[in-house]
Design a protein that fits this description.
By secondary structure, this protein is mostly helical. The protein has helices at about 10-20, 25-35, 35-40, 45-50, 55-65, 65-70, 80-115, 130-160, 170-190, and strands at about 120, 125. The chain is built from nine helices and two strands; from the N terminus they run αααααααββαα.
């Protein structure tokens, strides 16, 4: 970099701007004359033609770069118009907040009505959804055990019927005691 580099003169930004505007033919002459980005918008159509652009392209560049005219297109509104605009913005914002509030109320209602997964034991972080499969499996196991015990009692009763009648009172007592034993086992398992 030389000692006479001017950061306010022609820079890479000026070169990029001229390429972006579709006037790469101006790059060499702007660099030679050290025309900066800040000065480009002040150039007239005649000056652009002197730099080597055809008249039509010069008019397009000048209208594109003319900042003063673009700023003059801004319409300054009256205070009443701005107040009306602000009131409309507030009205639309209020409507949106009402919709959000209704949605939150709906979500709260759904959460209150549908407390499906409640905590059974908060100390162990056990919820109903975790305990339900365990309880179903335990109940099915108990039912299988009861079914097995009943089939054993049925076999015992059938064996007693098949044997010759020695002592019918003795057989009835055995059947009643076996039935009582099965009932006791079932009650003790289901009550605990």
């Amino acid at each position: 970099m030389n000692n006479f580099y001017d950061p306010f003169g022609f820079t890479k930004q000026t070169m990029s701007l001229l390429r972006g505007l579709g006037a790469p033919e101006l790059i060499a002459k702007c660099k030679k004359r050290n025309i900066s980005t800040d000065v480009l918008h002040k150039l007239t159509v005649q000056e652009l033609i002197m730099l080597g652009v055809n008249p039509k392209k010069a008019e397009e560049l000048q209208s594109t770069l003319n900042i003063k005219r673009k700023r003059s297109d801004i319409v300054i509104t009256k205070v009443e118009d701005r107040v009306k605009h602000f009131l409309e913005v507030i009205k639309h914002g209020e409507q949106q907040f009402c919709l959000i509030q209704a949605f939150i109320a709906y979500c709260r209602l759904r959460l209150v009505k549908e407390q499906i997964n409640i905590f059974v034991d908060p100390n162990h972080c056990l919820t109903a959804s975790k305990i339900l499969p365990i309880a179903v499996a335990a109940t099915l196991t108990e039912l299988e055990d009861a079914k097995k015990n009943l089939s054993e009692v049925e076999e015992l009763i059938l064996e007693l019927k098949m044997k010759p009648k020695r002592n019918s009172i003795h057989q009835v007592c055995i059947a009643i005691s076996a039935l009582g034993l099965v009932t006791l086992v079932l009650f003790t398992r289901y009550m605990i």
